[in-house]
Amino acid sequence: MTETATLSGREIEVKQLTIKGVRDYITYMRKRDDMRNEWEQYETARAKQEAGTWVPEDPLEEPAERIEMHTIDMLYNDIASAKVVSMATGLSMAELEGDHDPKEMRELIDKVKAANPFLVAMMDRYSSVGNTKNNPS
User: Contact 28/47 with Cβ under 8 angstroms?
Assistant: First the structure.
C-alpha cells in the first residue's frame, strides 16, 4: 500500500513497512529503551555518589549515547513516532525537523498510519498492555 503526501511543496511517497521493517522498528525501540535504562542507572549511581551511598557495582561510566526525544514526537505525541514516519517515507530524522507547516506534518503522520494499519494495530495493543499494567482498574 502506497500513499502520497505533500510536505513543504515536496511530494512524499508513504509506504507500508514490510515485516522486516516492523522488526527493525521493534529492534530500534528496544535499543532506545536499553539506552534509556543505562542512563537511568547512571544517573541513579551519580546521585548515590553525591549522597555518599555509592557502591562499586553501580555504573558510574556515562553511556555512549544519550536519548533525545524527537521534535515530532514531542509535538504530536502520536503512536506513529518520528522513526516510523522516517522509515515509511525515506526522510531522515533531521529532514523531519525541517521548516515544515505543522498541519502538513500532521497529514503526513496520518497517511503513514493509514498506510501501516498492521503496525498501528500492534502499537495500539502494546500501548493498551502498558496502560493496563501501569493503571490497573
Answer: no
| pLDDT per position as a tens digit, 78-127 | 888 889 999 999 999 889 989 999 999 999 999 999 999 999 999 888 77
Contact partners, residue 17, CB within 8 Å, separation at least 6: 25, 84, 87, 88, 116, 119
CA distance 98 to 94: 7
Residue 1: closest CA among 18, 21, 22, 23: 18
Whole-model pTM: value is 0.71
Q: Name every residue whose Cβ is closer than 8 Å to that of residue 78 and which is 6 or more positions away in sequence.
A: 109, 113
Chain centroid to CA 49 = 31
| CA 59 vs CA 33, 35, 39, 41, 111: distances in Å | 17, 13, 9, 7, 43
Q: Reply yes or no on whether the pLDDT at 131 is more than 90.
A: no
